Amino acid sequence: MDIVIATEKDRADWNGFLARCPNGNLRQTFAWGRIKAKAGWEPIPLMAKAGGEVRAAMLILKKRLPLGFSLLYACRGPVLAWDDVEAVQALFEWVRRNAGSHKAVMLRIDPEPGDEALMARRLADVGFIELDVPYTGWNRTRYEIRLALKPEETIDDLFRSFRRTHRQNIASAGKKGVTLEIGYKDGDDRIFFDLMQQLESNKHALYHSFEYYSGTIAELLADGSGEILKAVYDGKVIGVLILNLVGDRCWAVYQANDYDYRKLMPNKFVLWEGIKYAKEKGCVFFDMGATQGRAFNPDSALDGYKMAYRPDVVAFPPYYDLPLNRLLYRCFSLMEFKLIPRLYDLRRKWENMKKKSGS
User: For residues 1 and 106, what is the distance between their CA atoms, to the nearest angstrom?
Assistant: First the structure.
């Protein structure tokens, strides 16, 4: 079995393999690697092939550390059949063999759900350590909110399953004149960026540049694998949803809405239209994402809002680490799970003390 670093000419084979595999995930696509490259990660797309057939894929993201060292992370990877022992062994043997050239401290993975007992055995066999933590500060969180799209269920059945007030809000948007527009037009990236700026300003969220969002939209819509849905009112785009499909699975990747038009419910309207789009494409689920850096919380604004669509909260397997430099791995683990949380606790206590002394 050959392990190769995939290039642009392998993009169709790569994405075709992910589309066929039930554990193929958006964050293992070729496009996602190019998107993360804009945010400072170096993509290393590994592909295992035998007899011209792709047997495994793993998009590794490399983050540089001081003194030339690096962290390796396969978000929602690898993509393979866990009973394919040869592919599992070949893939991670390549990582071990080439770790030195990257001065890699570790490889962390957080795979899609599957046969977790089999997964755990296979990973233990090649040297992985299972982490007993509910979330970390820099990895994808261990849950996703997904709406199952059952073939036997009609669009009307699906709509009736939503929370009653949510159904009323969606219906009211259409009655008030909000309409749907599908498909990218010149300038949509600027419109989306302006809406994201407004959202990030209101929520004090992470800010990205126009070039980042423009390039991200181009990647997500490439090869017909994605779509842009827009809520329009009186000729003005007041809501945007970016979707991406991997085989028969759909991800709502980005959503932004005009705060000044929030009473027209463009967010609920366009998300419902996204669900209908996925249903019409024959998708088996519609992934609404998760809130990073914490466990699922139905009382939070974002998780609670999504639960109105009556989705499933899908629990993911544990994080797994493959130590590649034992000494530095122990130091990194101590810092990640002991030192940094302790510093955050001290900072919170200090801020609370300042608030009390100023009151």
Answer: 24
CATH topology agreement for domains 2-142+317-358 and 150-283: yes
pLDDT digits (tens, 9 = 90+) for 269-300: 999 999 999 999 999 999 999 988 888 998 88
**C-alpha pair distances (Å), 31 with each of 51, 113, 167, 286, 321:** 26, 22, 34, 19, 25
Four-CA torsion 10, 12, 17, 23, nearest 10 degrees: 110
pTM: 0.93
Sheet holding 312-315, edge to edge: 179-182, 226-233, 236-246, 249-257, 285-287, 143-148, 312-315
Task: Kindly list the domain boundaries of the chain, sorted by start residue.
Answer: 2-142+317-358, 150-283
DSSP letter at 136? -
User: Out of 3.30.70.360, 3.40.1190.20, 3.40.630.30, 1.40.20.10, which CATH number does the structure's domain 2-142+317-358 have?
Assistant: 3.40.630.30
Tokens of 41: 């990660």
In CATH, what number does 150-283 get?
A: 3.40.630.30
41-54 per-position pLDDT tens digit: 999 999 999 998 99
